[in-house]
Amino acid sequence: MPESKNIEFSVLDLVPILENKTPADSFKNALDLAQHVEQLGFKRFWLAEHHNMLGVASVATSVLIGYIAAGTEKIRVGSGGVMLPNHAPLVIAEQFGTLGAIYPDRIDLGLGRAPGTDQLTAAALRRQVRGSEMEFPDNVKELMNYFLTDEERLTYARAVVAEGVKVPVWLLGSSTYSAQLAAILGLPFAFASHFAPTNLHEALTIYRERFQPSRYLQEPYVLACVNGVAADTDNEAQKLATSLYQFFLGVIRGNSQRLQPPVDQMDGLWTPFEREAAFKQLEYAFIGSKQTIKTELQAFVDETQVDELMFVSHIYDQKARLHSYDILSELRKEISK
């Protein structure tokens, strides 16, 4: 039987905009969190790409990555992810080639094929909405080619600042599509189980069974993103989690809003149907005291055998959010696969 090992813990930040606060406040909180988890030994700090959401400030992903990387020293900083259909592959190669040259061996490039917004906003982003997601595999390959040396390059155009720069490319997904593509290309795979848990197990099975070793990766490597709200007691964590519940309630209703302060109870704020819909999306939300979360997290790792856990925390109070990661950091030394 193989020897057990502790798995890596990382962070995904949507850079939430808090009720009664500004995006500038959110950027400061993001850097504060990154510096905090770096000291705690977390492996990477990723920033999402979303658009036209009142409560999310992670829109200019590469700019924020530079801001976070400049304010930290060793933690890996990357995109979780860049929604590639919104961008020309050459532009992303130039942006991340620049970041990778300034912060060597610290930048990750996670790629997704969704727009990260609604279709009207997607059009405002100047996307070619028709067929763009179908072109995703070719766009990924084109993007990766820009990082090759000039001797290996297969494209006419050059991203000179990216050539030979080592920026690991990840594929992100919430279905089996990206799992298959990551397996074919021999890339690490991150699954968005923090909001789309349904296809997690099928996607992981497909990725592992069909994985083809590449110049980038010899064996399959899986990261699962989950929600994490930790506190000193279960009751305290459940109250903090009402901000998370209100966030998902807004998504269900199509009502974009800033991250709301916690409330004593959700009864009266959502209907039974909305509650059920939210909890279905939040199947992999680990909420509670250290011991409660430890038991549930270990069961999740035993079941999925993931190599890395990435936590996103919709916690309104910054001190409570930092303390939540303090508790998760203690678990990092106890959870193993």
UniProtKB/TrEMBL annotation:
GO terms for molecular function: oxidoreductase activity, acting on paired donors, with incorporation or reduction of molecular oxygen. Residues 13-299 form the Luciferase-like domain. It comes from the Bacteria. GO terms for cellular component: cytosol. SUPFAM superfamilies: Bacterial luciferase-like. Gene3D superfamilies: Luciferase-like domain. To bacterial alkanal monooxygenase alpha and beta chains. This is LLM class flavin-dependent oxidoreductase.
